[in-house]
Specification:
Blueprint: H1 2-13, E1 25-36, E2 42-51, E3 56-63, E4 67-75, E5 80-87, E6 92-99, E7 113-118, E8 122-129, E9 133-139, E10 146-153, E11 159-170, H2 182-185
Antiparallel strand pairs: 1-2, 1-11, 2-3, 3-4, 4-5, 5-6, 7-8, 8-9, 9-10, 10-11
Length: 188
């Protein structure tokens, strides 16, 4: 009986991690680090509202030196769009076009391979496009909560993003979160 009980415990505690299948439409509390080429790195803490279905992101965040900042990224195609950055303290808004391939943060998770452990009890999943990109995801073993996701471009130097999730709530954010304020609509 003791041997049977021991085998049951080993089976329960040694179960393989479950492949995550995270929704790209979500609301989360995050720490986000972005390095793109020679641009200064950006670090911020706050809310990320990801609406892959609508091809848009919003960040309500705190940025060192700027305070509370709201950022909208709205794609008008799969490669181009506009970014609006509103500094809440001054009510100054900057609008700038961008060219960036549109992907959901978890587009790769179903193609990833389990490569080991991460963050103590987490499971690390990785997907590599040889000579182009490396995508890494650390989630709980049940595959229900992301701990962090990381993107590294293997061609261009200094193209790196890492997002640490403090919370994650799947589901499409309300469209009202993406209404661009009047002060930004006419920004340059």
């Amino acid at each position: 009986m003791l041997v049977l009980f021991s085998l049951l415990l080993v089976t329960v505690f040694c179960a393989a991690p479950v492949r995550p299948n995270f929704n790209n439409d979500f609301t989360a509390e995050v720490h986000y680090h972005i390095q793109r080429g020679n641009d200064p790195p950006r670090d911020f803490n706050g809310h990320w509202l990801s609406d892959k279905t609508g091809m848009r992101d919003r960040y309500d965040v705190e940025i060192a030196g700027s305070g509370r900042v709201d950022i909208w990224q709205i794609w008008n195609s799969t490669k181009t769009g506009y970014e609006y950055i509103l500094e809440m303290a001054t009510q100054k808004c900057r609008k700038s076009p961008f060219t960036l391939e549109f992907h959901g943060p978890f587009d790769f998770d179903q193609s990833a391979t389990l490569v080991g452990a991460c963050d103590g009890t987490g499971a690390k999943w990785q997907f590599i496009i040889p000579g182009a990109w490396e995508f890494d995801l650390c989630s709980n073993p049940e595959g229900t909560r992301p701990y962090w996701v990381e993107y590294k471009q293997l061609v261009a130097p200094k193209f790196h993003e890492i997002v640490r999730f403090h919370s994650y709530h799947p589901g499409r954010p309300d469209a009202s979160n993406y209404i661009i304020p009047a002060v930004c609509a006419n920004a340059k």
